[in-house]
Design goal:
Blueprint: H1 2-9, H2 14-27, H3 33-42, H4 54-64, H5 69-83, H6 86-89, H7 96-101, H8 108-121, H9 127-141, H10 150-166, H11 170-188, H12 195-211, H13 215-223, H14 226-234, H15 238-248, H16 257-274, H17 279-303, E1 316-318, E2 323-325
Antiparallel strand pairs: 1-2
Helix pairs in contact: 2-3, 3-5, 4-5, 5-8, 8-10, 9-10, 9-11, 10-12, 11-12, 12-13, 13-14, 14-16, 15-16, 16-17
InterPro entries: ARM-like, ARM-type_fold, HEAT_Maestro, HEAT_type_2, Maestro_heat-like_prot
HEAT repeats: 95-130
Protein name: Maestro heat-like repeat-containing protein family member 7
Amino acid sequence: MLTRLLRREAPERCTAISEQAVMALLQRRTVQDVGAMTVFVELLDSTNLEQVDGRVLSILQSHLKSQDVLLRRLAVRSLVMLSGRCQKAATLQGLLPEVMQRLQDSDSEIRMGALTVLGSTLRLADGKTAGPIALQLFKTLLPLFENESSYVRERSILLCRDAMEVAVGTQRRQMRKDVRRSLVPLFFHLHDYDPSVAQASSETLHGAAKFLKRRQLRKLLKTEQPWKIGECLLAEGSSRAEEYLQQSLPYLRSPQQPLREAAVRFIGLAGRQLRDGRQENRQVICDGIGIVKCMINRLRASLSSLSHPSVQYVPITTVEDSYITILQNDD
């Protein structure tokens, strides 16, 4: 509050006070760390960036690992601001491993800040730094596709796109399996409620198709025909279809209705392809069908008192064929 008042009433003093905050940080007096960090962050836009040297960045790196959530937040906030300045963003690459660890922080503000920093700096880092980070990022980012925050979903999806683009040589070969595992989540998030997440999914899925040299998939993405894309994924062969089927089951319980409906249809496509396959495949599909039937029964119960002519839910069920489809009239 005081620093904000200072910026409004006496902006000419901000630079001097920010310099004092930097000096306090360099002295590393633990008791003063929170106060000095708060002033440093609040007045960072008044700070001479030449003062933010390796010593200050080392302190920020240390605070990223602090047990104190407030210090971690302040460190991430300062890095978000620094990463937004072209002349400083490239100098942050040494902190990227620690920033990446913050993607798993228990604090949502810190996770979002870490995504922002990585999104601003990964492309600017040299190959020696960016490549190993990109390899690790994919495994860390995939669970974030399902985060309740649309910002986290969008940024994590776009960061996967960036990771594919900075990987080179052997890193690309090592990344192929993780990129392939991202195809189904990206496909489902083409149906995301949030248009920015859906757009990010489309861009990243196109990048993944290019990475994996899937020409037909790239072609279908240009036509914007979601179900053709689903069929294309399942056409890779029975082993891939099995893997994709397993990945689709959690989406039957997605909090987003469009993703649940997409999962039902995808399982129907998989059922038709795998109905003559091994018994374990049929069991997986039947398990999915069981979930869908429960969903339909709950939906029918909730709609039993309503009469809405524009929506019809017509389940088509054959256990032997192992698929279900929900038909919904256009508005």
